[in-house]
Amino acid sequence: MKNEVSNKNLTLAQTVAEEMLKQDKHAQSLGIQLKQISPGYSELTLFVKEDMVNGLGICHGGVTFALADTAFALACNSRNQRTLAFNCTITYSAPAHVGDMLTAVAQEQVLNGKTGIYDVVIMNQHLEKIVMFRGVSYRTRQQIVSGLNAG
Predict the structure, then answer these.
(1) Is residue 145 domain-resident?
(2) What CATH number is attached to the domain comprising 48?
(3) How far apart are the C-alpha atoms of 3 and 60, rounded to whole Å?
């Protein structure tokens, strides 16, 4: 029975993520790709292109923030309850460059009532940490995809 519930929750998370990404024109324009999703977890990738660099020739902080924020959003909405960012902090620990493949991993740390805490780490293809992001979320009673419930 536990595997059935787990499979139902994975399917729910996948359905919600697909719907959110279908509506997220900014993530689409950046080329953000979903690699894995489960309740409270997401993994996304982004290839750094020439039009993503800032005046110093490194990946713009807004691009990596958008990747981290998207991973955060998918992780905290994965149970089909509309969840909004309440607060986010980001630390840039190393630059990303044109040609880098970035992977963002978002993991739920705390889910307590209507609030949650999520950590996102972005690494490059050499597994060097580029960004550490922490998001605090606030859950509403609304669903992302109507009629679907967590198991």
Answers:
(1) no
(2) 3.10.129.10
(3) 42
Q: For 51-97, how does the pLDDT look when each residue is reduced to its tens digit (9 = 90+)?
A: 999 999 999 999 999 999 999 999 999 999 999 999 999 999 999 99
Structural domain of 69: 2-139
Residue of higher predicted confidence among 10 and 107 = 107
Helix (H, G, I), strand (E, B) or coil at 116: strand
Helix (H) or strand (E) holding 107: strand 101-112
Tell me if residue 60 falls in helix, strand or coil: coil
Number of domains in the chain: 1
Cβ-count burial 58-68 (b if 16+ within 10 Å, e if not) = bbbeebbbbbb
Band of the pLDDT at 150, cuts 50, 70, 90?
Answer: low
Please indicate, yes or no, if residue 36 is contained in any of the structural domains. Answer: yes
In the sheet where 129-139 sits, what is the strand order? 33-38, 41-47, 101-112, 115-123, 129-139, 83-92
Q: What is the Cα–Cα distance from 30 to 49, expressed in whole angstroms? A: 9
- Cα(50)–Cα(58) distance, integer angstroms: 9
